[in-house]
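One chain is below:
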Amino acid sequence: MVRYRTAQLLTVVKALCLVGAHDAPMTHTMSAMQHHHAMVHLERLENMLSDLLRLISEQRGGDRTRAQVAADALPGPGDSHAQSMTQRDMDFCMGEREIARMHEVGAALKRLHQGSYGFCTLCGNEILEARLDAMPETPHCMACQTQLEAHSLA
């Protein structure tokens, strides 16, 4: 059941990533080599998305909603309220991290299908292949990422 549910969710997420993709203008022209690398990254991104969905499902204990998981985290007889709430908060934080990553991967898949994958969403410059190999979901070149991080620390 969990495997089937994960496959269904993967299909839905991919469909959501592609909504409007055919309407988006191709802002960049990819070389044959860039196209080859994009196809390699497509498979990696799809695998990452599948792994994230599986991880979220495992964290929730199968085919359960966040509300069901939260209800299970309520303190029972003899349980410390503080410990129960701390555990619930930690579970939600872990789930939120995976959901945020899932959105990043979905956005990368959308850029790939729009033809803008591999180009920085801020400055439009090409993202180095080594950076994409390390983080295929990254939307920013190294220079823009460095600036973003510098501003967030200020």
Summary: The chain has one domain: 2-119. Residues 81-114 form the longest helix (34 residues).
